[in-house]
Design goal:
single chain; 414 residues; mainly alpha; two-stranded antiparallel sheet; 17 helices
Length: 414
Amino acid sequence: MTTPLSLPPGRERALLWLLALTQFTIIMDFMVMMPLGPQIMQAFSVGPSAFATAVSTYSWCAGISGFFAATYVDRFDRKRLLLAVYALFALSNLGCALADSYSTMLLSRAFAGLTGGVLGSMVLSIVGDAIAAERRGAAMGLVMTSFSLAAIAGVPLGVVLGAHFGWSTPFFVLVLFSVLIWLGAQRVMPPMTAHIVHPPVPASQILPQLFALMRQPEHVRAFGLTALVMVAHMMLVPFIAPVLVANHGVQPEQISWIYLSGGAATLFTSRAIGRLADRYGKQRMFRIVALASLLPMMFITHLPMLPLLAIVLLFPCFMVTANGRMIPMQALLTMVPDPSRRGAFMSVNSAVQQVATGTGAWLGGLLLANGADGSIQGFGTNGWVASVLVLLAVCWVGQVRAAAPGAARSAVAS
C-alpha cells in the first residue's frame, strides 16, 4: 500500500484549508442558484419548472461525471488533474455569469455539474492520500467546514450581491475566488503520484476494472452507507425553508438568520467531531452522532408554533448533528479502497451521492402535499422515513471496513 505524504505541519494545514476553500466554491456554485431563483426566472422569462430543471441538471451531470471520472482519475498526478478540472469549473461559472439566454444557462449548469462532480471526489481522494488514517477524521472535519462557510457567508453574501447588482454577480465573484484558490493550490499543493500503478493499466482493462471495483463487497457496502445517509438527509433539507415560510409564518428574508445560526454552530463543532472520530473510531463516532441526530430530525419535522428567536436558537442542533454525521462517514470511506484505486472509488461514491441526493429530494417531495390554506402537509412523515433510514445506516456502518491491500487489483486479475 502507498504511504501518505509527509508534509510539514504548516504546509499540511495550508493544503487542507485550500481543499476546504475548493469545496466551498463547489458547494456555493450549487447552493447559490436556489435563492437567486426569482431573479433568474424573471431574467430569462421562464417558470418554476424550467428553473428546477436548471438546478437538477447540475446534480445529474455531477453524478454522470463522477461515474466516468472513475475510469481516469487514478492515472494522473492528483495536483495536475485538480488544477485542470478546477480551471474548467471556473470557466463554467464564467459561462453562467455571461449567459444571455436560458439555453446558455442550462448548458453552463450542466458543464458546472460535470466539473464539480469530479472535483468533489478529488478533494476527498487528496485527503486520503495526504493524511494518515489516524488523523484523517480531524482533517475531514477541517475540510467539511466548507459547508459551514457556505451557510454563514457564501449564500447570504450571494443573495445580497444578487439583489443589489444582478443575479450574475455571485457567479462573477465565484470566478474571481476560484482563480485565487487555483493560484494558491498551484503554489502549496505538492505533486501526488504515489497512487499511480506502474505499468499503467491498459485501456482495454479500464472498464473491467471499474466494474470489478463496483462489485467488490467492501465497496458495495460503502456505497450503500452513502446512499442511506444522503437519501435521509435530502428528504428533509430542501423542504425546511418552504415549510417554515408556509406553515410557521417565517418571512423569506428571515431564513438567512436561521441558516446563519446553524452554519456558525457547525463551524465550531466540525473539527471537534473529526478529532473525536480519530480518538474513538470512525464507526463509533458515526453511530453516536447519527443517533443524536434523530431527535432534532423529529423536532424539525414536527415543529410547533414558535417565535423566530426560538427557531434560530434551536436550529443549530439539527445542523450540527446532520452535518456531523458526514464527517466520520467521509473519513471512514477514504479508508475503504486500496490507495491505488482511491480516486476511482471516491468518484463512483460521488456519483452514488449525487443520485441519492436527487432521489431523496424526489421521494421527500412525493410525500408532501399542499393544504387548502396554503400550508405544506406531510413533513412529519418525511421525518419518520428519514429516521428509519438513519437507523438502518447506524446498523449498516458496522459492515463498512477497509479493503485488504491490493484487493481491487486482485479482483480484476481473478
